[in-house]
UniProtKB/TrEMBL annotation:
Similarity comment text for this entry: Belongs to the FMO family.
Gene Ontology molecular function terms on file: flavin adenine dinucleotide binding; N,N-dimethylaniline monooxygenase activity; NADP binding
Keyword Flavoprotein applies: yes
Keyword line: FAD, Flavoprotein, Oxidoreductase
Descriptive protein name: Flavin-containing monooxygenase
Top-level taxonomic group: Eukaryota
Keyword Oxidoreductase (UniProt): yes
């Protein structure tokens, strides 16, 4: 019987939780993330403005952000 293959798009909070939930199942997992680090649009560095392919990267983080809740 062939193993299932599952791709998760994005390594932000939701994508990471899906990877964790599926890691013990008998499946082949792969995750695609545009940035070089996990965290999705919640990952921030000064270099987060463009990706390695020089495309603009959307991020909800900014330099002085302490909390994103009300």
């Amino acid at each position: 019987m062939m193993r299932k293959r599952i791709a998760v798009i994005g390594a932000g909070p939701c994508g990471l939780f899906q990877l964790i939930a599926l890691k013990n199942d008998d499946v082949d997992l792969i995750c695609f993330e545009r940035q070089s680090e996990w965290g999705g649009m919640w990952f921030y560095t000064e270099e987060s403005k463009t990706s390695t392919s020089e495309e603009p990267v959307h991020t909800s983080m900014y330099k002085q952000l302490w909390s994103n809740g009300p």
